[in-house]
Amino acid sequence: MTQTIQQAAVLGAGIMGTGIAAHLANCGIKTYLLDIVPPALTEQDKQNGYTENSPEFRNRLSTTAVEKALKGKKPIPSFYHDDFADLIQCGNLEDHLHWISDCDWVVEAVVENLGIKQALFTDIEKHLSPDTIVSSNTSGLPIEELIQGRTSQFQKRFLVTHFFNPVRIMRLIELVPSDRTDPQIISRMEKFASEVLGKGVVFGFDTPNFIGNRIGVYTLMRAMQEMVKKGFTIEEVDAVMGEPLARPKSAVFRTIDLVGLDTAVNIMNHCHASLLKDESRDIFIPPGFIAKMVKDNLLGNKTQSGFYKKTKDEKGDPQILVMDYLSGSYRPKEKVRIDSIKIAKNTDDPTSRIRNFVQAEDRAGEFAWEVMADTLIYAGMRLGEIAGDIVQIDNAMKWGYNWTMGPFESWDAIGFVETCKRMQAAGKTLPTIAQSILDAGAESFYQTIAGRKHYFDAATGRYQPIPADPKRIDLAGRKNNQKEIAGNLSATLVDSGDGVLVCEFHSKMNTIDADTLQMMQHGLDLLDRDDTYIGMVIGNQGENFCAGANVMLLLANAQQGNWDEVEKGVKLFQDTNLRLKFSKKPVVAAPFGIAIGGGAEISMSADRICAHADLFMGQVEFGVGLIPAGGGTKEVLVRHLECIPEKAHNPNLTPFLRAAFELIGMAKVSMSAHEAASLRFLRSTDKIITNRDHLLHTAKNMVMAMHLEGYTPPRPRKLSLPGKSGYDTFRIMIDPMWKLHQITEHEKLMAEKLAWVLCGGNTCMRIPVTEQAILDLEREAFLSLLGTEKTKERIIHFLTKGKPLRN
After folding, report:
1. Pairing between strand 462-465 and 500-505?
2. Angle at CA 407, nearest 5°, toward 403 and 413?
3. pLDDT at residue 157 above 90?
């Protein structure tokens, strides 16, 4: 029972099954993907010369599913990199079910039909090896019925592994065992899901729709109920139930469009049919307008028409239509203008945002309060029915529905005692756990005791510590325990233990400003002069690693003509990144999520990178009319040339320089850390992990290992670059693009500036160019572009519209 899972099979090549197979492949697991044999030959099959015995025909459903996954790049690809698809072997359930005898884990993901699943399990059991784990991805069918008729050995190794869609991105996996599941199986799957698949694991009970969908769908239905009652529009409900409550912008109706109205209705119907003792059972009855939309095949994103529909207006400009649920027809989406929503969106702290919003005395605040209050009560009522403690419920909603706070954390945020009083004053009945906390004289669901977070355990009536993950560094907890060394508004230095510093960013979107650079410099100073510290990690636990430099501040200085200040700031950024690169002690960057512009430059300047697999890294400065100038242009150049020996005789640099030019000039952004590696943002010595919670811990271990090995800083490199001759070659490529109107005149200027830097300026192959010389060139190009009106227009457009301008 201790061996790792190295080979798996996924049965069912629908959206979920293919997503599970793709993510298993992403994590290096060889995977069989099997589906039924198609019922009949199509005309295309016949034209291809296939017969009913042709493997191409019999395996078509699974092979087509993988092909679609490879083509479906938006919004985020299923695969970290297309190469991972090679780990999936496609087949069918009639010819290849015996393959599962070689598997450590078999995942059933066929249609949500009890009879079909039971029949498949009968066939599966004939081929299983003694130690193979079997699981179902059901969203709520009873386990007892799924394993009915199976042997005790099968039942011991069976459980539910409920993934959320899209599998690669959604962190939640609900593990639901039966009372006969072997505890070693549960422990093994928890470790595998967390450490290999990078998932957040919650343990649910065998109840319809488990935890996430039970609470999540209730919230959606309660919002719809309130919408009809108060006469809100679709877009108003999404404006209320999204960002102001620290939840995704998709809120209610965009979420349903994403999931699919047909899928959502199935979940609603299943809840209503199964939850006979639920006091709020009738809320799960699908409203008439949703039933009509399903009948009309308005299923959301999968049919390009749902509650929202993208189209074009009479002028051909993009337009979003929204469903008028009263008339059943589409109309143009209207901007929601309610003061409390505007105030909430401008409040960065989620606790203050939620608290102030539900207390707002306008129609949006009143709507939010009514839905949130009933959701909190409903979640409290479900404790002991769907999960054993509040932590499981909170995590399910954060990881499965992308809420910033779970229901019980939200209750604490808006004030536990005050909220209870407000609920009671409105005639609402508190759940038992809330009353128990009040009776105990306590004031919250969660408390920090001795520097560690505890939760109120309804079973014991006491606060219990939340089990600590030994591979997670809690920066907030470290700071609370007096491990903060220094800090300012934008960054903090934290002692993570074992002599390793962590430089944590915490500005808005973790953008880089003078305070950020000051704290990085302070950390480097400590490494230089204090032998207590052996190295530093640059990372944080925000939503994203770093969204680049503070462009608004940059623009303001440029418009005011503060050019000395601008150049001083750019030079400071370059010098800081150069210090990172050549620090006498190791520095590891730990990027995740968005790491663009300056965030990419800082990461590349560190000696090594420990990246989360979902990494969207790129040098995107071209989008605002600039080139990377914090060392980004130089680092992209170095990384594209480092495979060439320094003293190689007359090498052909053109393909390498062109690749670097296109990477910056096209503002390419990786869709994963693996793609970032293929773009040369990451090196082979860097590390990629799937569990974001383990990122800082792993980066810290990398620093410690480098120290133990006897760290030696990298040697500054001199580059042989073509200079003007190479620049002329680029101009031959750029000019026709301008003449054919493929690029604007300003983009021609930008491209020429970039080419001049990449070619080393006024040099030739016989004269080596230092890294500092490239930094000087990129700074000069950056400042000259910033001085143009066209670049300023681009920056203003991006700041106001959130998208690039081509002028």
Report:
1. unpaired
2. 90
3. yes
